[in-house]
Amino acid sequence: MATKTLTQRVTALEKAPARRKTAKTTEIRARVDPALKTHVEKILADLGLSPSEAVRLFYHQISKRRGLPFPMRVPNAATRKTLDDSAAGKNLTRYADTDDMFRKLGIKVGESKTQSTDP
Asked: Cβ atoms within 10 A of the Cβ of 22, count?
């Protein structure tokens, strides 16, 4: 028995009568950065998927998991306040330059926590 490609498996899954209740007639449009689109489409091609197949898989996963298929966290109150304060320019610590920042934080510039084994 021949091994099916990922595209063939996805297509078979999408055509399964138990999963498909209506014809695929709805169009989704999204604006993305052109460089991101090109980069992602190359990855999808390497995986044997079209962008449409990837979007359908993404939607199937959202439906199956009843949420996004990756962790997404809402910042807690302290993090939200810090982000809001930073955006408003409040409670910021300013430094003259990176050396000043490292000095005030007690970090010696050029200090390494790991030893290099390269000659």
From this structure: 6
Residues 54 and 20 in one domain: yes
Look up the domain containing 13 and give its range. Answer: 6-65
**Residue 60 and residue 56: Cα distance in Å, rounded?**
6
List the pLDDT tens digit at each of the 119 positions of the chain: 456 777 777 767 666 655 555 666 788 899 999 999 999 999 999 999 999 999 999 999 999 999 999 888 888 999 999 999 999 999 899 999 999 999 999 998 775 555 545 54
What's the residue count for the chain?
119
Please check whether residues 10 and 61 belong to one and the same domain: yes
d(CA 12, CA 22): 16
Contact between 20 and 14 under an 8 Å Cβ cutoff? The reply is yes
- Provide the number of structural domains found in the chain: 2
